[in-house]
Amino acid sequence: MRGYFIILIVCALCSCERKQTSGMDVLAKVKDRTLIREEVLRMIPKGASSADSLLIAESFIKKWVKDALVYDVALRNLNDEKEEIEQLVEAYRYSLFRYRYQEQLIKEKLSADIRVTDRINYYEENQKKFILDKGLIKGLFLKIPADAPGLSDIKIWYKSSSVESLEKIEKYSIQNAIFYDYFYDRWVDFDDVMSNIPIHIGSTNNFLKNNKTLELSDSSYCYLLNIKEYLPIGSLTPYEYAEPQIIEMLINQRKMEFLRNFEEDLYQDAIKRGDVVFGETEES
């Protein structure tokens, strides 16, 4: 069976550019279920080697065949429950389409209706909801190979926020840095930055209070962090950082009413057009 799979896969993968025929397209068949070449090709990552592509394809085909066989056995042995299962599948399909469309509708319509003034007012009226449970910082972070040239220079430049120093850092980083993040103009999560540095920080607030820069080296890299501004845990979240969360809160707050109105309008319009017909009920 393994040899059969390999022959099918090799023929399919090697003939990707050839004119397709039904025989070449079919890689496996279990009764009335058919697996075609395109389904397998979609599972193979771009740039994968021929050997890796072969292994991935063979594994996928084998799993597909096993799933199809189990499905066939299940159909034969659950015949009494088939109708109930079909009803459940249809109900799920119905709900999935409804949910996906409602999410798309909310994103397109409701998000655009949330004005900047609404966001600011919500922020000012609900500041207790926006207390930081993490530290935020503004600054820059560099990760440089330990053997990179000019380390002594970059260790001076990163401590300065002058335009001249930043220009030098940017030029240096293009050629040498593994990672360079400039965030003097925006708040970022302190923990996210520190996840790139192999050091344990006991207290976020104490560290931010006592350190404006961090310089650390190991056998592979040099890590440089300059903290221009910080907000400790327990501070009020800045509006610009909280804005995406505010938009989400306002959307959730208005979502039910929006969907209720949308469904009612849809219902009334359908009745006017005659798209909905109610059956007559017999009086008892």
Number of helices: 11
**What is the 3D shape?**
flat
Give the total of domains.
3
Widest sheet: strand ordering: 4-3-6-5
Low-confidence stretches: 16-21
Largest sheet: 4 strands, antiparallel
Outline the fold blueprint.
Blueprint: H1 2-14, H2 22-25, E1 26-30, E2 33-36, H3 37-41, H4 50-77, H5 82-113, H6 116-125, E3 136-145, H7 151-157, H8 163-176, E4 179-189, H9 190-194, H10 204-210, E5 213-217, E6 221-231, H11 239-273
Antiparallel strand pairs: 1-2, 3-4, 3-6, 5-6
Please characterize this protein's 3D structure.
13% of the residues are buried. It is built from eleven helices and six strands. Helix 5 packs across helix 11 and helix 6 (116-125) packs across helix 11 (239-273). It folds into three domains: 2-79, no CATH class; 92-131 and 239-253, no CATH class; 132-231. It has helices at 2-14, 22-25, 37-41, 50-77, 82-113, 116-125, 151-157, 163-176, 190-194, 204-210, 239-273; strands at residues 26-30, 33-36, 136-145, 179-189, 213-217, 221-231. It has 284 residues and is of the alpha+beta class. The protein is flat, with a radius of gyration of 30 Å. Residues 16-21 have low confidence and may be disordered. 56% of the residues lie in helices and 16% in strands. A hairpin with a 2-residue loop joins strand 1 and strand 2.
